[in-house]
Amino acid sequence: MTLPFTLLIDPVPADSTRTDFAETFHEMESTAPALRVGELSTQRGDGIFETLSVVNGHPQEVEPHISRLRNSAEICELPVPNAAQWRAAIAYAVDRIPSEGELALKFVLSRGVESGPAPTAWLHATAAPDYRAVRERGVRVVTLDRGYPRGVAEQAPWLLMGAKTLSYAINMAAIREARRRGADDTIFTTHDGYVMEGPTSSVIIRSGGVYVTPAPSGAILHGTTQQSVFEYLEGAGEKTEYRDVTVEELRHAGSVWLVSSVRLAVAVTAIDDQPCRTDVDLTRSLNAYLLARTA
Ligand code: PLP
User: Fold this and answer.
1) How far are the Cα atoms of 103, 143, 259, 262 from residue 224, in angstroms, in the given order?
2) Residue of 146, 196, 260, 293 to test ligand 1 pocket, by largest number of atoms within 8 Å of CB
3) Using CB atoms within 10 A as the burial measure, which of 17, 19, 138, 251 is most buried?
4) What is the position in ligand 1's atom list of the atom closest to the CA of 227?
5) Would you state the pLDDT for residue 179?
6) Does the C-beta of 261 come closer than 6 Å to ligand 1?
7) Which of UniProt's keywords are assigned here (predicted)?
8) Which residue ranges form the domains of the chain, and what is each CATH number?
9) Shortest CA distance to 162 belongs to which of 153, 149, 150?
10) Percent of the chain at pLDDT above 70?
């Protein structure tokens, strides 16, 4: 029942009929050495990951996270993860970590060691940062050019745009750039003026009374939190839509949110120093809904 909690996993093939995975899990001290120096995840960022939230003992959106991990594996030509094994690994971890509070559970599949026997996989659970204040206060954002045109995923699939790879150096640099400009976070745009996503979040806007998110057509991740938010809004009788959003439309939107698994929903209070309207009550309702999910 202590944190951090670390589990090394021997990945089994996707088509394995095995149902008991206990022998493939190896609990270890989080501070002990675990990876070989030749690991391609650390040498080249060559691997994929997911981070899901565990709230009061409930891991959230397990299936969407596993299915996105499998999609990332396909894009990166990594062995496709065995969904049952990952489900079991998450359940194994959840049984051994505190059943109260907000936790972040990260799971990683790396290409392993060059010419090594198999991919490497692990799962790591930590206490989530305390995001209560930012959920109330919101974030100031800057728009930053991601340097690619719309349609990049089809034109250059080797850029692995729709995969959640471990190569987050650019995403972190974009957040540092936002801070240099006096903001908290970033919204990436295409070179030709379309909204993409945040470096660690999806973008939702309210435009003409409809809740819109950029279509996850391969260049951005299909956010699990965004999908939950749309379910909530649709259940409340609101209209939702996946489509292209221009930077112009973003600037004139009624409200804008960044949503992600652990920070959840935060209102955007300014875009490139121009104040945005925020809907405090809806942001609170979204977060109450997201925190109350039991699966
Ligand atoms: N887009 C990017 C680039 C991300 O890194 C993340 C989350 O880390 C998201 C979107 C939001 O995804 P999710 O809601 O599944 O956390």
Assistant:
1) 17, 22, 9, 11
2) 260
3) 138
4) 14
5) 98
6) yes
7) Lyase
8) 5-127 (3.30.470.10), 132-292 (3.20.10.10)
9) 153
10) 99
Q: How far apart are CA 277 and CA 268, in angstroms?
A: 8
Instruction: For residue range 55-79, list pLDDT tens digits in order.
Output: 999 999 999 999 999 999 999 999 9
User: Cα dist. 107→32, 155, 163, 219 in Å?
Assistant: 18, 30, 14, 22
Q: Which of 22, 200, 30, 265 is nearest to 125 (CA)?
A: 30
Ligand 1 proximity of 59 Cβ (cutoff 6 Å): no
What 3-state class would DSSP assign to 144? strand
Residue whose entry in the numeric block shows the structure tokens 């995975």:
21
Q: pLDDT tens digits for 3-49?
A: 999 999 999 999 999 999 999 999 999 999 999 999 999 999 999 99
